[in-house]
Q: What sequence folds into this?
């Protein structure tokens, strides 16, 4: 069985963080709920144009807004973002130790 990076709760119990791995931007509605609960500056709202180009979320050319992973390395694997996502578009995975 693979070993994963683990943490310890305040009470001394071991737990396995599950880090943000992927956001399904086809399902994402850009509501921003995940962004609001993440205190680690991992996520970023981006805009996608009609041609599929990535632009600033508030650019006039943005036809759709979706969430993206900006700083994956900042994630602590708390899974809060996934819990508040009504579209279940955020996938998390433990990290091999
Ligand atoms: S798992 Fe936690 S730290 Fe990682 S992106 Fe989601 S809310 Fe932020
Ligand atoms: S909570 Fe889900 S639907 Fe809303 S922006 Fe985040 S990933 Fe997209």
A:
């Amino acid at each position: 069985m693979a070993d994963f990076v683990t943490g310890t709760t305040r009470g001394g119990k071991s737990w396995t963080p599950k880090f943000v791995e992927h956001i399904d931007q086809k399902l994402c509605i850009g509501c921003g709920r995940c962004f609001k609960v993440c205190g680690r500056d991992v996520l970023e709202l981006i805009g996608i144009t009609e041609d599929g180009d990535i632009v600033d979320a508030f650019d006039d050319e943005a036809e759709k807004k979706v969430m993206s992973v900006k700083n994956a390395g900042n994630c602590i694997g708390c899974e809060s973002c996934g819990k508040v996502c009504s579209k279940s578009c955020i996938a998390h995975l433990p990290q091999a130790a």
In short: The two ends are 12 Å apart (CA to CA). The chain has a mean pLDDT of 96. The chain has one domain: 16-93. The CA atoms of residues 2 and 20 lie 19 Å apart.
